[in-house]
Backbone:
């Protein structure tokens, strides 16, 4: 049963001292699906992503990728299994050029590409995210938006089965937002499953096949966006009691 | 890249050939100065091999250098020279692997302090062993090796360390280390086994430091732990590499030559104020040229290019 999901998270728990940041969370991501992970600030979304990518080990619970347990594995092993991510605060490699940033994703991940083939591929991926012609630029010369594109390019270089996006669309202007949404949609059509932490409602409504909502470390809803966003408990989590 | 190799390789060959001729023409003083420069070249380049891209500042240079020297002091008279070098290499690698695996999880200032402590610890251990077990603090190194042979061995080591550096720069490992230096979290998330990469390079860099100590040992005829494990060596190597610039393979040499000459001058003329003057030199370098001579050169080149660009219609 569980092997039919791409990613299966069950009973996931992480404590920081006395604080239970993530408390027994269950959800699954299916092939070719975009799953939104929503919730107010501090509800544990990024902690969930950190556990899936291996940055943090869970205290309890399991994470399975195509049925195989990956919880507690080192991040580089999880990356090589085809789980790539972007970071909430953009992390591009400052002393490397744009091309080298993407090469970093190609050289050590699932594809293990190097040499001329890798350079060509890096160029293609940069074109893909809208950074054509900037391969030789240093990352420090890029605007914030382009740094985000570059971070996505580096993640795509890993040829992920599952892509974890941590507020990748935050801070984009309306035009860029439309381009960003289109880009993410095109990834799905290529068969990349995406788990996205996101606050931009337009993006959630137009992209997500399903949403999981967290509050105070717990899952409070799981379903299609329209239903989940109308759920009284979700509304309460975001806005407090309606008639306060 | 290829044009660089085509132009660079013959030039490098000629340079090495010229350097190899030095013992035939130089007097004793010049030769000893050349040996000192070559020794620091090997140490500083090996240091930068690891610390340059990763930005892990190591003060363990003298720990490995001293291990090499002591291996020669212990086995030098009993065994054939190549075998002695091999033993030194093996001991250096083992110590580097143990230290690497236990400390490379530390970062920043903690790593610096740990490596400094390590060098001191090894010095104290050797001292304790010599005092309590062998009942003698110093050792004599009587080996049939001429000054010229020491010079040529160091030259060979220097060539090797440069070749290794070039190969690594072009390899995946080189990129991995630069990614680690920029952001270790990202490095892990693109599939880099950061521990393996760091330990492998730390050990490689230690190999050159250990061999350098082994080759230099016969120069002294008498060594004790305070000489072989003198912490000042680590600082000198560090400051030479920083002065030259650590983000280019040839950077450290640019710092080694002027500083080795300066140390020599200060030692000869101000032996009693040597430490104070060196301290001043360290501060000046870090304050005035934080990006090293390579940085200055590149800045200069950039300025000239910009200037030329503006002049064009």
Residues:
């Amino acid at each position: 049963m569980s092997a039919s999901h791409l990613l299966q998270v069950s009973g996931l728990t992480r404590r920081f001292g006395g604080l239970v940041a993530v408390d027994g969370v269950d959800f699954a991501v299916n092939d070719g699906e975009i799953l939104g992970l929503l919730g107010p600030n501090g509800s544990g979304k990024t902690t969930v992503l950190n556990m899936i990518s291996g940055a943090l080990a869970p205290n309890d619970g399991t994470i399975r990728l195509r049925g195989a347990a990956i919880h507690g594995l080192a991040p580089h092993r999880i990356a090589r299994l085809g789980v790539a991510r972007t970071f909430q605060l953009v992390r591009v490699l400052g002393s490397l050029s744009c091309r080298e940033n993407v090469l970093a994703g190609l050289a050590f991940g699932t594809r293990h590409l190097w040499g001329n083939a890798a350079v060509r591929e890096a160029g293609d991926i940069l074109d893909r995210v809208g950074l054509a012609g900037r391969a030789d630029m240093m990352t420090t010369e890029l605007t914030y938006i382009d740094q985000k594109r570059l971070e996505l390019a580096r993640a795509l270089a890993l040829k992920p089965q599952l892509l974890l996006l941590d507020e990748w669309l935050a801070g984009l202007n309306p035009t860029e937002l439309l381009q960003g949404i289109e880009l993410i949609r095109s990834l799905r059509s290529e068969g990349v499953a995406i788990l996205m932490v996101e606050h931009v409602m337009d993006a959630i409504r137009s992209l997500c096949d399903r949403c999981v909502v967290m509050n105070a470390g717990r899952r409070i809803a799981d379903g299609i966006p329209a239903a989940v966003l109308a759920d009284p408990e979700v509304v309460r989590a975001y806005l407090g009691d309606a008639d306060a | 890249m290829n044009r660089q190799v085509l132009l660079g390789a013959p030039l490098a060959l000629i340079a090495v050939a010229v350097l190899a001729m030095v013992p035939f023409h130089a007097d004793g003083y010049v030769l000893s100065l050349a040996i000192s420069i070559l020794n620091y070249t090997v140490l500083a380049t090996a240091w930068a091999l690891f610390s340059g891209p990763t930005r892990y500042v190591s003060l363990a240079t003298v720990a490995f250098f001293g291990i090499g020297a002591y291996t020669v002091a212990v086995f030098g008279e009993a065994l054939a020279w190549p075998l002695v070098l091999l033993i030194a290499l093996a001991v250096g690698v083992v110590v580097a692997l143990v230290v690497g695996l236990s400390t490379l999880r530390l970062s920043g200032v903690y790593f610096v302090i740990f490596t400094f402590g390590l060098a001191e610890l090894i010095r104290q251990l050797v001292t304790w062993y010599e005092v309590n077990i062998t009942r003698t603090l110093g050792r004599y190194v009587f080996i049939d090796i001429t000054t010229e042979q020491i010079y040529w061995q160091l030259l060979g080591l220097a060539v090797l360390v440069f070749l290794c550096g070039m190969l690594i720069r072009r390899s995946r490992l080189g990129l991995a280390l630069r990614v680690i230096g920029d952001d270790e979290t990202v490095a892990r998330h693109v599939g880099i086994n950061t521990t393996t990469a760091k330990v492998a390079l730390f050990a490689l860099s230690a190999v050159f430091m250990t061999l350098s100590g082994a080759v230099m040992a016969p120069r002294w005829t008498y060594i004790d732990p305070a000489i072989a494990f003198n912490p000042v060596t680590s600082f000198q190597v560090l400051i030479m590499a920083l002065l030259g610039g650590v983000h280019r393979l040839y950077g450290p040499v640019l710092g080694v030559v002027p500083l080795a000459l300066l140390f020599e001058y200060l030692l000869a003329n101000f032996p009693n104020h040597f430490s104070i003057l060196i301290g001043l030199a360290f501060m000046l370098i870090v304050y005035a040229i934080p990006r090293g001579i390579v940085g200055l050169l590149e800045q200069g080149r950039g300025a000239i290019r910009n200037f030329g660009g503006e002049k064009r219609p």
